[in-house]
Design a protein that fits this description.
By secondary structure, this protein is an alpha/beta fold. The strands form four sheets. The chain has a six-stranded mixed β-sheet with strand order 5-6-7-3-8-9, with helices on both faces. The protein has a six-stranded mixed β-sheet with strand order 14-15-16-12-17-18, sandwiched between helices. A three-stranded antiparallel β-sheet has the order 2-1-4, with no helix packed on it.
């Protein structure tokens, strides 16, 4: 269906492809991967003839239809989402407009179009117009559109919903080759699962760029990696590709080392005997032997990745944040009624549950971006919260440059340190002077992370942090969060990201919070889930009853075990009370200390000898007391943390 042979493409001195080759056959499902800037989107542009290759051939099978979904959509006008989904070809759009115009002018006759012999109606029937209409609505529904939204003007929709409408158009069109550039970026979990399953039964070939490992594992049967200016093909899904690449790299490195030893041996012989007349001919022969060799290139690591590490925040108290008897509603729509939640230091909690269940709402309540109608939100001792939203526009000002936006922080930073951090997020050179409003989705995500890192909190609240990040950036974010010593609560539909980080799962559904004291694999086991991604929406609904029943069926602990459990519970209770008491006293003393220091800073107080002396003595007593309490709190908190992990 599609053949690339000998394709070369350069931009100045930078070579993206050199003699690259690729064959795509009918029914192929291929994931295209490579580090940021390797040329994935450029390759799509070459295939679509949007720009020419410097050399080589790109051939299509005769009459093959190509459908393409870019990362970002073009501006829209008054057309509706349904009209976008129906625009499968220019000819179809033209004929449909003629039919609609005729129906408007002849409303009575239009009730029986089969009786008409109008050329437009005949052509519309030939194109299966009414079947196309039904299919377009089916595709829009699968991608999350409500019936009431399908006929809304596209200009009233967000960019993400417009992209869904264009995706529905491609699925309605059913091209022979479907080319998708990060198609999951704008999908929620329900629509992503529908889309993923639909593609598994798709009749045409698929060539997809995606950073979503779970999506690639579920869909593709082959991976093409852009590496060292070549297109290297592997069989199997993404996980199998990683295994194969590791084995291939090991073999390649061994062959490279063997060849280098041979080259060194031949070169040493030539260098040693080239000056001797009796050996000169042999020396030249060795040099020609080196020249004739098909040189093996050493395997190299991926190109530049985002490299960063969270600056470690100050240590918080054991109890980080508490929600008590919390009620929240959007107008007449109730989301939560009297929920309770306590997050402790060091927890890495993922919120899962159906779309619309209130996960993002809960995160915003924790971040104090939403105010409950009833109940309390309490931060623990020494806690500072930072919120990373999936909606980047909430965090960034489009009229600013990248550098100006990064410098807009309460932290004491220099321009040089900010530029260094931006550089590690792939904003280097003149790119720091780009305006925010021209940045891609991935660039905005990285800039939002930079802003968070410049003033790091010890409670991180993150909503879909991997959206628009490429795989190397996601890997770097995972590595950094593994080292992060604070507390993390997050929402994600990236299964790889969740499995790598979460040590606790909270299922949100029906206004209830169900806690699972273990990682995501534990959650899957407890909910008897067969699909890691499906469980992000479905898991947990029936889990509490199952867990209770399972516990009842388990053998009761022995008398000795019961005593040990009671002793541990009593010790935990005592330690928690001690830590909480110390935290409360420390907080009270620090408040008094701040008040006294404020008083002592006033000239009229300094001029009042007796009063300033009395305040100074009080300050000394408070500082002495804090020196005693702080180590006690630290010791007790560490003991509590260790005991809870047992």
């Amino acid at each position: 269906m599609l053949t690339l042979s000998g394709v070369t493409k350069s931009y100045g001195d930078r070579v993206l492809f050199a003699d690259a080759a690729l064959q795509v056959n009918r029914g192929d499902r291929i994931g295209l991967v490579g580090p940021n800037g390797a040329g994935k989107s450029t390759l799509f542009g070459l295939i679509l003839k949007e720009e020419p290759a410097d050399d080589g051939r790109i051939n299509f099978e005769r009459d093959a239809q190509i459908g393409y979904l870019p990362q970002e959509s073009a501006p829209v006008g008054d057309e509706s989402a349904f009209e976008i989904a129906m625009a499968i070809t220019p000819d179809f759009v033209k004929v449909r407009r003629q039919v609609l115009a005729w129906d408007t002018e002849h409303p009575i006759e239009a009730q029986h179009p089969e009786e008409l012999h109008d050329d437009a109606h005949e052509r519309y029937h030939e194109l299966n117009g009414y079947m196309v209409e039904a299919k377009a609505r089916q595709m829009l529904g699968g991608l999350g559109f409500r019936d009431s939204d399908m006929d809304r003007p596209a200009r009233e929709l967000s960019g993400g919903w417009v992209m869904r409408a264009h995706l529905a158009r491609l699925l309605t069109q059913e091209p022979d080759l479907l080319m998708l550039d990060e198609p999951t970026n704008h999908l929620d979990l329900d629509s992503l699962m529908w889309f993923q399953d639909y593609l598994c039964g798709y009749s045409g070939a698929i060539l997809v760029i995606s950073h979503d490992r779970e999506f690639l594992n579920h869909l593709v049967s082959g991976i093409v990696e852009i590496r060292q200016q070549k297109l290297i093909r592997y069989t199997g899904n993404y996980d199998k590709y990683l295994t194969q690449r590791e084995a291939t790299d090991a073999q390649l490195l061994s062959a490279y080392k063997t060849q280098q030893k041979e080259i060194a041996h031949l070169q040493a012989f030539a260098d040693r005997f080239k000056a001797k007349a009796s050996k000169a001919t042999q020396a030249q022969s060795k040099l020609k032997q080196i020249e004739r060799m098909d040189k093996i290139e050493a395997p190299v690591a991926d190109d530049k990745k985002v490299g960063f590490r969270f600056p470690q925040p100050v240590r918080s108290g054991q109890r980080v944040i508490t929600l008590e008897n919390l009620h929240f509603a959007y107008g007449a729509t109730s989301v939560y009624q009297g929920i309770e939640l306590e997050v402790e230091r060091g927890e890495r909690i993922v919120l899962v549950g159906p779309n619309g269940a209130g996960k993002s709402t809960l995160l915003k309540l924790l971040a104090e971006r939403l105010i409950p109608q009833k109940g309390t939100r309490t931060l623990g001792h020494n806690v500072s919260a930072g919120y990373y939203s999936q909606y980047r526009v909430e965090m960034l000002k489009p009229e600013r440059t990248v550098l100006a936006e990064a410098l807009d922080t309460e932290a004491r930073v220099t321009e040089q340190s900010v530029r260094t951090l931006l550089g590690s997020f792939l904003f280097s050179g003149e790119s720091v002077f780009k305006k925010v409003d021209v940045l891609s989705g991935g660039e905005k995500s990285r800039l939002a992370l930079v802003k968070l890192l410049l003033n790091p909190p010890n409670l991180l609240l993150m909503d879909e942090p991997t959206t628009h990040l490429d795989m190397s950036s996601i890997d770097a974010l995972v590595d950094a969060l593994k080292q992060f010593e604070g507390t993390l609560v997050f929402i994600s539909h990236d299964v790889y990201f969740i499995k790598a980080l979460a040590n606790k799962v909270i299922h949100v559904a029906g206004g209830k919070l169900t806690h699972y004291q273990g990682d995501y694999e534990f959650f899957l086991h407890k909910t008897k889930s067969t699909s890691a991604r499906a469980s992000l929406t479905a898991g947990g609904a029936a889990a509490p009853q199952k867990q209770v029943a399972a516990k009842k069926q388990q053998q009761q602990p022995s008398g000795g075990q019961k005593e040990q459990q009671k002793a541990k519970a009593a010790q935990l209770k005592q330690l928690r009370q001690t830590v909480q008491k110390l935290e409360a006293e420390i907080e009270q003393l620090e408040t008094q200390k701040a008040e006294i220091e404020t008083q002592l800073a006033k000239p009229e107080v300094w001029n009042d000898g007796p009063r300033s002396g009395d305040l100074s003595r009080q300050l000394q007593k408070i500082e002495a007391r804090l020196k005693v309490l702080s180590p006690q709190w630290e010791t007790q908190a560490v003991q509590l943390e260790a005991l809870e992990k047992e």
